[in-house]
Amino acid sequence: MIDFRYHLVSLISVFLALAVGIALGAGPLKQTLGDTLTGQVQQLRTEKAQLRSQLDDTAGQLKNSDAYLDAASGQLVQGTLKDRRVAVVALGAVPQDERTAVDARLTQAGATVSAHVTLTDAWSSTDQRSFRQGLVGYLLGYLNPAPDQGAGVQAQLAQALVQGLVRAESGKPDTLTQDSTVLLQLLSSGQTPLITLANPVTAPADAIVVLAVPVATTSAATPAPTPAQDATSSALAVVGAAQSFSHGAVLVDGSVAAGSLVSAVLADKSLNGAVTTVSGADTITGQVTVPLALAARIAGTNGHYGFGSGLSPMPARTAVPTTAGARTAG
Fold it and tell me: Which terminus of the chain, N or C, has less C-beta within 10 A?
């Protein structure tokens, strides 16, 4: 049995060790420890200052590169879309600065933006499926050509939207058909509109730029949510219809990330070779690439442009002025 003297010796040993530690820390080891810690702190401060300086230099170089590209973009894209009319379709809440920048680059290329369309939540919301199915019944009578028999509701809606934007009166390439006007009215009116129009559409478009909604930025520990299948499939249906019923279409998206439309296109072999994409909509390089990619697509060249695996930096410059009667008639 352990007696009191054992406990007493143990307590004395503990206090002696503590006293020795305090004495050494306050005496012989004090200067060494203090110098070591001071040196480490100073080194960290120096490294932080160096990294800050490098970051400032890199930011300055990037700013200069963007300024140069911005100044040179007019000469780079000028005339590539001369006399072309382009409809811009936003698949949802696309940042206004991106829309404005894309418009500016299309204008620099000589194009006229004939329409600004934004898809509402009702376009793909699961709560509005029955409404969309009912609406399609009214739309079918105004479609020419009619959708394939196997086409689903989303494909039919996409065709209605695109035909509403591009169909010209026979022999009057600058006049939108009456059926097209009705299609746009049906899609944009009522208590649950599927689209909103910035202004009335009066002239048919030659080509279409489709702006994807940016994928939400998340941390590495929290992966980006996968978009609902209805939303992805309906968005890709719009892109496919835009290419099928116009002279050329381009899908413009942010960075190629999990859940982005460009990543879905690149992963789908049937879409990969049929749909032109531009990544980096929030950068000057991506915005300047939009008219170049659209001109190349109208000329028959498909590609995927941006920076990353499977992407090309930019297409070759192609000028595609329109000619009389080139627009979709019907």
Answer: N
pLDDT at res. 14: 64
Query: Any residues with CB less than 8 A from the CB of 314 and at least 6 apart, and which?
Result: 285, 288, 289, 292, 293, 305
Q: Using one digit for the tens of pLDDT, what is the confidence trace for 233-250?
A: 889 999 999 999 999 999
Rounded-to-5 percentages of helix, strand, coil across the chain = 55, 10, 35
What are the beta bridge partners of residue 252? 211, 278
Report phi then psi at 211, rounded to 5. Answer: -100, 120
Residue at 165: amino acid letter: L
Q: List, in sequence order, every beta strand (DSSP E) within the chain.
A: 85-90, 112-119, 168-169, 172-176, 195-197, 207-211, 249-252, 276-278, 304-305
Q: At what angle do helices 96-108 and 284-298 cross, to 10 degrees?
A: 50
DSSP reduced 3-state for 329: strand
d(CA 63, CA 66): 5
Determine contact, residues 211/87, Cβ cutoff 8 Å: no
Q: For the whole model, what pTM was predicted?
A: 0.78
Q: Which residues contact 272 (CB under 8 A, 6 or more apart)?
A: 265, 266, 304
The per-residue pLDDT for range 107-165, each reduced to its tens digit, is 999 999 999 999 999 999 889 999 999 999 999 999 998 888 778 899 999 999 999 99
